[in-house]
Specification:
Number of helices: 6
Helix content: 40-55%
Shape: flat
Oligomer: single chain
Largest sheet: none
Length: 156
């Protein structure tokens, strides 16, 4: 007897869920028809449609906010703070370093060994040491400075 009651209850439940699902689909498919387009008023003199205008002579409102120039430190902060929540997460901090890491990881195993780092550093030092005396002068050291990024041209 309990199996029959449980089967009847399950059947009624499944039918109810199906009915609500079907009603929901019907409501979605029966969306409102699009609004009727407004008639275009044609100007009498040149045949072009006239555009609506507004009188702005005596209108007063709040002044638009002034754009403030960011300091150098704020620009540097926002380079890392990708989601602009005024907090730099560990993932945001590390995301800017992935390209440099991939250049140093020569074997591609996603682990940077001391040897990989030492070889890259020694090659950079040897490239900067122009006279080969195993010491960097200030002018030689200046050549190790990161290259400035080109600003993209305006695509106006």
């Amino acid at each position: 007897m309990s199996r029959i009651a449980l089967g009847a209850f399950g059947t009624i439940t499944l039918l109810s869920v199906g009915l609500f699902w079907w009603q929901g689909r019907a409501e979605v498919e029966r969306g409102a028809p699009p609004p009727e387009p407004l008639p275009v008023q044609v100007a009498a003199e040149d045949g072009e449609p006239s555009l609506p205008t507004a009188e702005t002579v005596d209108l007063r409102g709040p002044a638009p906010p002034e754009a403030s120039e960011l300091s150098k430190e704020q620009r540097r902060f926002f380079r890392y703070d990708r989601n602009r929540n005024w907090k730099i997460s560990r993932a945001e901090m590390l995301s800017s370093r992935t390209d440099a890491f991939r250049k140093l990881d020569t074997d591609g195993n996603n682990l940077l060994t001391f040897e990989e780092w030492a070889v890259a550093t020694a090659n950079r030092f040897d490239g900067a040491d122009a006279n080969g005396d195993r010491e960097l002068t200030p002018s030689e050291f200046a050549t190790t400075r990161p290259k400035p990024r080109k600003k993209p041209a305006c695509r106006c």
